[in-house]
Design a protein that fits this description.
The protein is built from 19 helices and 24 strands. With 557 residues, the protein is an alpha/beta fold. The protein is globular, with a radius of gyration of 23 Å.
Amino acid sequence: MLSDIEISQRAELEPIEKIAEKIGLTADDIELYGKYKAKISYKKLQEIAASPLEEGKLILVTAITPTAAGEGKSTVSIGLGDALNRQHQNVIIALREPSLGPCFGAKGGATGGGYSQIVPMEDINLHFTGDIHAVTTAANLLSAMIDNHIYQGNKLQIDEKTITWKRCVDLNDRTLREITIGQGAKINGIERQAKFCISVASEIMAILCLAEDIKDLKARLSRIVIGKNIKGDYVTAANLNAVGAMSAILKDAIKPNLVQTLEHTPALVHGGPFANIAHGCNSLIATKTALKLADYVITEAGFGADLGAEKFMDIKCRQGNISPATIVIVATVRALKMHGGVEKERLNEENLAALSEGFSNLRIHIENMQKFGVPVVVAINKFSQDTEAELKLLQQKCETLGIAAVLCEGWEKGGAGVENLAQIVMEKSREPNEFHYMYQEDEPLEDKISQLAKSIYRAKYADFSDLAMEKLKSYAQRGYGKLCVCIAKTQNSISHDKSLRNAPQDYVLPIRDVSLSAGAGFVVAYAGGIVDMPGLPEHPAAENIDVDETGKISGLF
């Protein structure tokens, strides 16, 4: 079979104006970025938001705990959208924008795979429409204004040692985690310790993805806390008069991007916060726009259900007043065997015992999602090496939990391989829905974190460092106690420890530190050794990416 990029490059795309027509948008409603990409105009976004149109059904696609064997969450999401389109349903796929960090690192791009892809694949995976560059620039403008303010006399009396705001870049560069700035001559500024995070983990990205419109965007930017003054009071972006310029940089980035799948299903690809550090969902403005324009909206949440899906419900749904009609959990036989102890080199061998053992990981994710009161379906992303006995065993184990497990072959067959899942998703979305959150906003911050530790991560309890408890108490005293919580932890385990595969339980979840994202509306709790600036592997994907003399890119996956 052809590689993902070869399939993408051989595809015949429809002009983006034609894709826009499918969801009721005219040429005047979109802003073109070439022949196959567009943004929805701000005027049209306002019109859609104010319209009395009935909202469609929101389908959330999530997954088991990621492994090196692969799960295929984006592939299933795109295949499901194409399958609904084949069944003559009005559907929009709403996904995140890929970060350059994973594209050049180990994970690769995020446009699906095989014959379930959004296109143009190279554009979406690389610079796209410049949204992430805008996020990077807005964040770094604030950093520049902070250090310039101090250099120019420090009228706000900012205490340099308390500055928490980080510069960012959309690449995996571990050398930037801890740096010293302002070295050398006095004209270079005040020398101090500083940090970088990857752009998609920045608070600006979270704000962009949770803002309802430009007015809300500016209000959120104004609430950003960058540190304290010498009296111990918080200093904000508004205090530095940075909000207007930051908003101007982001004025186009806030508009959702319209593209298409290989089967010409409309897709809004917008926003890209990491789920192991930030909240891991596409933009609220894209999701809510899609819900007004389609009967079914397929979206996904990053990494496993313990991370992205929980944050989707407790942060995005709460702040946006939306809720999913059905949750689809993606699993593969290969990944479950890996959770059951099989090494990657032996995953092609039938191993029913390891599959049974690894099923515990899927079981926990099913139970966790059922706690939110939403119907759950399992999508088995089929690989050619899967045996009939393995597939049958996995389906039987799901059936014992009262859960339908549907084979999906979107990678090989596109939407035609996902039609059975589409049918069940439509049926499930009509079932009674008792959606609710995992915690209430009035609960103390430490109680919210403890609730997630026990209910979602299956820990005995959360162990807070003295530093974390001190900060949490300070946040509550300053009026931030009702914010959501966003756990930052490894994606490779339900726990905080990436070496703990499958279904770890009854361990202690260490909360070593917390930080305030007042503009985004949540407090980040750092569990274990998670960092917000990834590093590259020994052989990064960047080593295999190239472009020929005609401009044709190779090596992306």
